[in-house]
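Here is the promised in-class demo. Please do not try to memorize the tokens; focus on the logic of going from shape to residues.
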């Protein structure tokens, strides 16, 4: 049984930082590209970033490029999302997802396993 669990969300002031974690189990983690997506109520879920199974290749959405960094620890089967210089428009539920292939992707339909999400609120 595959399980994907996010943690690390919370309330932060504009300009601040947060680090999200995503622990996965029950799958061949080293061979699975991982992605982060976010969703605001009433809007479609949007791509944030993706990292290949090896961790060598990363892909970012334009709004977060230069501010967010995705990384992974395959020994711990965990993916991290370091979010810096946060803006109110980054407020959303953040979801971690796993592909069954190792290449990165912006397409949420290519991700098979999803976590329940963790809320990030950027507000003063």
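The designed amino acids, position by position:
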């Amino acid at each position: 049984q595959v399980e994907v669990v996010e943690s690390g969300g919370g309330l932060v002031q504009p300009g601040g930082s947060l680090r999200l974690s995503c622990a996965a189990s029950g799958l061949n983690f080293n061979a699975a590209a991982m992605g982060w997506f976010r969703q605001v109520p009433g809007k479609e879920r949007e791509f944030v970033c993706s990292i290949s199974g090896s961790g060598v290749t990363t892909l970012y959405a334009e709004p977060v490029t230069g501010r967010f960094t995705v990384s992974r620890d395959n020994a711990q089967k965990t993916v991290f999302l370091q979010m810096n210089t946060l803006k109110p428009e980054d407020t959303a539920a953040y979801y971690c997802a796993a592909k069954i292939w190792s290449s990165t992707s912006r397409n949420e339909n290519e991700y098979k396993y999803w976590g329940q999400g963790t809320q990030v609120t950027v507000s003063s």
